[in-house]
Amino acid sequence: MKTTGTGRIVLWRGGSLWIGRAGEPTDFHAHHAVQITLSLSEGGVRFRRPGGNWDTYNAAIIAAHQPHAFEARGEFVAMIFVEPESSEGRALHQICLGEGISSLAYEALELELAALAASYNGAVHDSELVTCARFVITKLTAMSTVQVVPLDKRIEQALELLRERIGETVPLAEIADATCLSPDRFRHLFIEQTGMRFRPYVLWLRIEVALTALASGRNLTDASHAGGFADSAHFSRTFKRMFGIAPSSFQHE
Q1: C-beta of residue 80 within 8 angstroms of C-beta of residue 92
Q2: First and final CA of the chain: distance in angstroms?
Q3: What would the mean pLDDT of 69-83 be, rounded to a whole number?
């Protein structure tokens, strides 16, 4: 009998928290976010790189775009996703960039983990869960000694425009023109700064919109349409490619 993941997903600008009981192991996948995974029960969590073996962690950080599979069936787990364009995300991404998946100092996060677990078990408002998750992010970035290079201001402007117009079809050339760059120069700079091409990045933003709708209680079809997907099948395929599971395999509490 398959184990269904249960819990809550809360989102904020530039990040999200997925917390609860893990379901079935994921397929290999990769997404445009730094992933902090924290075991809130004794069994730990396991990750596997393509071609590698399963490794067990109490706390781990995964670089953006790092292919991996995840397994923690039935365990109480918190996963924090941070977009690498933010200053915090850029710092976190550098921590694990060489290894792709790195262990974190679990003992240094004990207070933050206890707060996360207590808040979830206490069925607090989403805003309190967000605060707890952001405390973890702040603690980890404060521990980092990596010098962070700021995001190029023109790409910052482009990302703001994309978020404002995510419900539309926005040509790359139009965004490039708004940032006073040629399409070719913009395309090159966008990849250099974000780590991905323009169209896949737009798709990532649309996944965020659909996930926000899903987490708010809307059904799969409505959430798919909110994100601009043709239907729930298209959304589910894209979601599984990025997160390794179908959106229907996670039951929101």
Answers
A1: no
A2: 21
A3: 96
CB contact at 8 A, 85 and 151: yes
Element (H, E) at 6: strand 5-12
Q: E strands within 23-140?
A: 34-39, 45-48, 55-57, 59-62, 69-71, 76-82, 101-103
Residue type present at position 30:
A
Q: Is 35 helix (H, G, I), strand (E, B) or coil?
A: strand
Element (H, E) at 141: helix 126-143
Would you give the distance in Å from CA 236 to the centre of its chain?
16
Q: What is the mean pLDDT of the chain?
A: 92
pLDDT at 148: 80
pTM over 0.90: yes
What is the DSSP secondary-structure string of 164-203?
HTTTS---HHHHHHHTT--HHHHHHHHHHHHSS-HHHHHH
